[in-house]
Amino acid sequence: MDPATDSVLIFDSFELDLARGVARVDGVDLDLRPKSFAVLGYLAGNAGRLASKQDLHEAVWGNVAVSDDSLVQCIRELRLKLRDDDHSIIKTVSRRGYRLDARPVPPPHDHGSQNASRQMSAPRGIAARLAALPRRSLVAGLSVMAFASLASAPPIAAGMRHPLAELAHWFVPEDHGIVPEQDVERITALAAEKQLPLPAYRVRAPASDVPDNVRRFLGVWVSDQGWINSHRQFMMIVTNVDRDGVATGYLVNGPAMPHSRVPGPGFSGGFTGYVLDDVLRYDGNTGLHSASITADGRIEFKLVFREGGTSVVFLEPLWTLAHPGRVARSQT
């Protein structure tokens, strides 16, 4: 038995690496809360079979008494991250539990075949998306990709980076949802100025039944001075909120400054948080994140590190439903 092989479960739609504690879709690691990963691990270990609510509670929370809502929130996060909008991967068995309807890929017999299977699992979903495109769009997109590869050579890249981005955007324009194009341009320009690696985002209009204390977090928030003490720039993009208080989006950090606790270049990652008592909370790999709106309409964002210590940053509403078109104070 090879522990490295046995610790990886491969399905048509995702991959579960039990040793590293991560799940992947199309080869990209998902940012899951520990309990959500544990729920997915149990479902994957019982793929195709009913996992009762009681079994899931015992496997994930043990003797700790929690409500069914804790399990529901984990399932909601998993469906979001696995892009399971139609509940075709994780099925609800009414009043009984859940069933993972994902076909497992047989484990390989050696490392070589394992690597091949893992490399093929990511392109499988991409190939399906490409096959659905019109042939003209597919040819155009592949041409852009080939041109991008050529333009990445150092002598060419310096002069072609901006035209290439324009060409790619012309073929595949991004959909930013309810954010007006002029505001998208301002957000993009300010992110570039602050060296924030802006992800591809889409802000969705909230349903009419979303409470105001949840709705007001929706939008794009950016730091003025950056994290207190380190001055590393930071942006929070809340793309979707629902009536249960679930908020999803992206956290974006600029490049490290001399006093930053986390070194390295700028980076961004998705998050799923929950609004409770007017505070948006997210339990991430680094620690517990919390965001609360101040009396003057800013966000006080705190990160309590797992190894100890707290960092704080104040965010301005760059674009929100309450303040459309507003810019950070340093830009006014």
From TrEMBL:
Domain OmpR/PhoB-type as annotated: residue spans: 6-102
Keywords from the UniProt entry: DNA-binding
GO molecular function: DNA binding
DNA-binding region: 6-102
Stretches with biased composition (Basic and acidic residues): 100-112
InterPro entries registered for this protein in UniProt: OmpR/PhoB-type_DNA-bd (IPR001867), Sig_transdc_resp-reg_C-effctor (IPR016032), WH-like_DNA-bd_sf (IPR036388)
Name by which UniProt lists this protein: Transcriptional regulator
Species this chain originates from: Bradyrhizobium pachyrhizi
